[in-house]
Design a protein that fits this description.
binds flavin-adenine dinucleotide; Four Helix Bundle (Hemerythrin (Met), subunit A); mainly alpha
């Protein structure tokens, strides 16, 4: 999926899972002249594919929401709303970003309290989960998952 003019022939790693990306890459690239370096186990440090990017991004966004002030002032509310609107424009997986832009147009960010923001974001993530056929997350547990740890103490 091209992201910018001139990049039409480059497969977008941040828009594909690793398997798909490798296939696309394989069909375009020439045989390597230099053999690849051996991979040191547990230390790959490669660019993120769509799923790695998604997992890391959701981690940051939900953690931000769960640490957002419980009772933000007007300025904090406005800033975080603006953050999500801008985030949606620059998320590096273009098809994901376009759908997310549509979703937040229909469901604009709500951030009058921490709980409201965390619930709004959980719902947005569930919209993506639904689209991908994944199980929906119980949004009443969002702070356990992202801030406090599970009530059974398994994260302590
Ligand atoms: C804004 C955005 C849009 C995306 N759009 C697409 C897309 O259009 N197509 C595509 O293929 N991929 C998309 N992705 C990536 C996709 O959502 C997943 O991140 C990716 O498929 C990896 O999924 P995963 O099963 O590892 O868990 P993820 O969905 O990444 O979730 C990570 C963890 O978050 C927790 N979690 C799950 N659901 C919720 C929730 N509702 N609220 C709070 N916590 C939750 C769970 O503990 C889970 O293990 C998008 C990612 C982002 C950030």
């Amino acid at each position: 999926m091209p992201q910018h003019p001139g990049e039409e022939d480059k497969p977008c790693r941040a828009c594909s899972d690793f398997k798909t990306w490798s296939k696309l890459q394989g069909s375009k690239s020439k045989k390597p002249i230099i053999p690849p370096k051996p991979v040191v186990e547990g230390h790959k440090d490669c660019p993120l594919d769509k799923d790695e990017l998604g997992r890391s991004t959701w981690g940051l966004l939900h953690t931000m929401a769960s640490y957002f002030p419980e009772k933000p002032n007007n300025c904090q509310t406005e800033d975080v709303v603006q953050f999500f609107n801008i985030f949606a424009k620059f998320y590096p997986c273009e098809p994901c970003a376009l759908d997310f832009q549509e979703d937040i147009k229909e469901n604009p960010p709500k951030a009058c309290t921490r709980d409201e923001l965390a619930k709004w974001l959980c719902d947005r993530h569930n919209t993506v989960n639904k689209k991908l056929g994944k199980p929906l997350f119980d949004c009443s547990k969002v702070h356990e998952r992202w801030r406090d740890g599970w009530a059974d103490g398994s994260c302590d």
